[in-house]
Amino acid sequence: MKASVYHDVNDFRLKDMETPNIGYGEVLLKLKACGVCGTDIHKAIHRSVPPETVLGHEFAGEIVMIGEGVTKFNVGDRVVGAIHVPCFTCHYCQRQQYTLCPEFKQTNIVPGGFSEYIHLSERHVRHLLFKIPDSMSYLHASLAEPVACCIHGQKAADIRPGDNVLIMGAGPIGLIHGQLLKHKDVSKVIISDISSYKLKKAKKFGIDYPVNIKNENLKAVVNQVTNNEGVDIVIIAAGISSLLPEAIQLLRRGGRVICFSPFEQNSEVQIDASRFFKDEISIVGTYSVSPFEFEEAIIHISNGTIDAKSMITHEMSLDQVGEAINFAANPAEKVIKVVITD
């Protein structure tokens, strides 16, 4: 089979690899679509994975082989899933903190989503594989994983009806958050970015106040929208740690910051720590996704809560993964979501 293999920055090579074998309880999946995620971009640009890695985890595909003991699925089923599976029995899993499970990152799809086929373990098949409706295209289904991640993150935000919410970053994740929020009976949603293209998309998705921070004062907009009270929730959807002090400044008393995107390793920022006591604010980190958000994500894509057609701006082929990474990473490009298709 063919796979796009990462070797270094700007060095992806299309290679022949052995098609994975499957065992008891396992399945072989023919990849039909795999989204380019911000973490794929981060790993490729910052060399945070070793050479010979096959990236990609936002996959949708068709089951072409099932192992003995598989009863939930059949050959020909159209499915989506994710890369990591918790153990469900450890200290963290018992507290429903599934993404902190020590075994979570030890589980992986093989070799990765930027390939023709992937092997899914028995644990994946049992807990983290979901059928998609016949009416849903593989292209649109590839959004299930990032949508599920955003649902997972918003659980941590404890969003209430009538809340005012600020999203910092209008990339794919920020725009998914915005669309989900508009179906939660929140009051107003503000989103900030430096890309006029992305902010126009945000307006199309019904987000109330797109703010271009190159020529608008974000604090002034927040004060105007909230009558100088500040927002109830800030979702940081860009991997820029310097956004954290600003987010805290824009919070209402009792508000909460959700750190959704990965910050730079060992990055340090200065924040007004007095607010934790006098204003009872909080900062919460949220990572990845558990198996319990996927069915909701599939429903949101199916019923149009997530405008999948407008979100996916570009399709590229397996031999263009390196090009897709650079294209999606370039803030000057008019791109939201790139999906690799067969």
From TrEMBL:
Pfam families: ADH_N, ADH_zinc_N. Coiled coil: none annotated. Residues 7-340 form the Enoyl reductase (ER) domain. Keywords: Metal-binding, Oxidoreductase, Zinc. Gene3D superfamilies: Medium-chain alcohol dehydrogenases, catalytic domain, NAD(P)-binding Rossmann-like Domain. This is L-iditol 2-dehydrogenase. GO terms for molecular function: oxidoreductase activity; zinc ion binding. InterPro entries: ADH-like_C, ADH-like_N, ADH_Zn_CS, ER, GroES-like_sf, NAD(P)-bd_dom_sf, Zn_alcohol_dh. The keyword Metal-binding applies.
